[in-house]
Amino acid sequence: MEIAENINLHMREIEDHFKAAISVDCVIFGYDESELKVLTLDCNMEPYLGFPSLLGDLVKNDENLDEAATRILFERTGITDVFLEQVKAFGETDRHPMGRVLTVAYYALIKVEDYRQNGQPRGIGAKWRSISQLNEMAFDHKNILDSSLHLLRKRLIEYPLWMKLLPKHFSLPELQNLFEAVLAKSIDKRNFRKKISKLGIIKEVGKKQEDVPHRPAKLYAVNEKKLREDYSFLLKNPFIS
Amino acid sequence: MEIAENINLHMREIEDHFKAAISVDCVIFGYDESELKVLTLDCNMEPYLGFPSLLGDLVKNDENLDEAATRILFERTGITDVFLEQVKAFGETDRHPMGRVLTVAYYALIKVEDYRQNGQPRGIGAKWRSISQLNEMAFDHKNILDSSLHLLRKRLIEYPLWMKLLPKHFSLPELQNLFEAVLAKSIDKRNFRKKISKLGIIKEVGKKQEDVPHRPAKLYAVNEKKLREDYSFLLKNPFIS
DNA sequence: TCAAAAGTGTTCCAGTTACACCCATGA
DNA sequence: TCATGGGTGTAACTGGAACACTTTTGA
After folding, report:
1. How many structural domains are present in chain B?
2. Could you tell me if A126 lies within 8 Å of chain B, comparing CB atoms?
3. Using 50, 70 and 90 to split pLDDT, how confident is the model at B16?
4. Which residue range is the domain that position B176 belongs to?
């Protein structure tokens, strides 16, 4: 009887295939000025010279994918403990002009205030761009962005990921704007507040907005106790749903 | 001013990294005898000799990931037009004893009747195993299976993917058993039927079960017209949600 | 006192859940 | 006639959607 053939044939056969490079590309989302933004570079490689590109790097030989994504985030933003989740692999044969480079996409959620504090020195050249401005990008990065945004939208509805994007203290209008920016649709204010308050994971901090030319909004923070009870997985990283 | 560094540095630097192999592993789901099953092989490689493994292969140099998955499905089952969706990439450095082999997991949904008709000659050695029996597997394949099953559960609730698993004619109890098998929980019969009938995507075929020692169930088939109207994307392949 | 945005409840509809009995068939 | 699973409806509950006015602040 014929023996079942496995994926894993012979050393030589595999060695013939050890020709690909693996990279990780990160879609680093931030929320600022009521817009959802992505941290980008200007591509310095033909034929994509000047096009916005995602932040990525080749995966080192002794490095897992999650580790590579974490490293890239740290190298580029100076931030540790970033929320990261793998999106999927992109492996079109012609996606990279230099040869076969399979990339694994991750999305990351960071607070732009953390980036401003830690990131500027390391992130020279990196620019926040609104997702609405990102139409043409280098390589297949627009495709990667679209997939990541699609996943983020699903996740945002399922889990309180917005806390990863907002500053420590935030107002309900800010939170609602974040939802509207990510989901690209408007939400009823009263229904939104009802739903958020039922979750019970935010609490008033007893302060108000300052320097606004209208009635200041109350400020809230995440209720860490409730968070640990209901969403402890959000404290781990990377996040597995 | 420092120039922004891209992922894509210099040819030589990338060439130093062209050392990895890329494989695709398929979690091929089938539904038979009221159980959710996965097509597996017995691993022929130490240290996993005899452990169940998924069906996979190395990706060829001129082959995209989706193409590789489709090819593997065809080579192993003889079936074309298989429903396939990428799960994610698995890239632990130590996941393969031969070296750095990044694998991209796909799940596939096939009708076991199609496999029986087309597949046996090609699928020598492949075995259907119930997911409940698959505790230890070769490599990180149990991990891959778990992720795939998790995704399948989400998809099954969102979309009528069950039609990819059932034979052309099926009964409502069969359909409900499929849900219960995949989701691993029992469902109220009346509520289930109410929901299915409201979808409107199945229709009676005017036949009944035969050779059952009790009241025979009516047989149904997918209403192709309604399917095209509401779920045309299910007719494309691979599926992008 | 005005402009601007914050804050606040109720009603309705739809979808989900819980639940128990009769029916058709083969043995 | 019995055993086995197939087939059916209603009532309560829950979550989501629609909707308009008052309040607080700075200018």
Report:
1. 2
2. yes
3. low
4. 161-236
